[in-house]
Amino acid sequence: MESKTDLRIIRTRKSIRDAFIQLVREKGFDAMTIHDITAKAMINRGTFYLHYQDKYDLLERLTDEVFQDVIGNINPSTHLVGGKMHPKNVETSIESVFEAISAHADFFEAMLGSNGSLEFSRNMLSMIRTKFDSEFTKAGLPEEQMHLPKDLVITFISSACHGMMTWWLQNGMIHTPAYMAQSIVKIMMNGPARSFGVEVMEE
């Protein structure tokens, strides 16, 4: 009996999730109502409220579920040993991040699309930044040995990561996760100027 109940809950939540994503694409998050969600999911309002408080609670919980997979793969502290970074390990980690995004592509594409939520994009950037901050603290890198302020570097890396993820999704994931990982590591190693083929003058 318990397994049947669990299966029913899983099916109901999936119906709500699918309806939510479809409505974001059709109407946008701000315009959708609980009635829209329940009608699309073919459930009654009472069933919806058994699972979620409102559409904001639904969005928050879907976001948390998705980002557990994505953010969990951002772990630069494991690739920094004795102050040295291992590019191949970083590449593997980044590939895992893009694979996790791909697994939830329908949700991300809806939320970052033309009818998506600007607040979601801001929260996404904030979560990425918080994770990087935590990881660099965990790595134990002495701030006095850094060439630039820690906050400045973390802000740059987080914004670049967020931008690459968003670009990839908005362009139909035209490259494989492996290609994205390889490209990002090359940019990290060479810097933007050399990645453009521009010679950097030594001063």
From TrEMBL:
InterPro entries for this protein: Homeodomain-like_sf, HTH-type_Tx_Regulator, HTH_TetR, TetR_C_Firmicutes
Record GO terms (molecular function): DNA binding
Position of the signal peptide: none
Span of domain HTH tetR-type: 10-70
Keyword Phosphoprotein: no
Known DNA-binding region: 33-52
Keywords: DNA-binding, Repressor
Matching Pfam families: TetR_C_8, TetR_N
PANTHER family according to UniProt: ACREF/ENVCD OPERON REPRESSOR-RELATED, HTH TETR-TYPE DOMAIN-CONTAINING PROTEIN
Protein name: TetR family transcriptional regulator
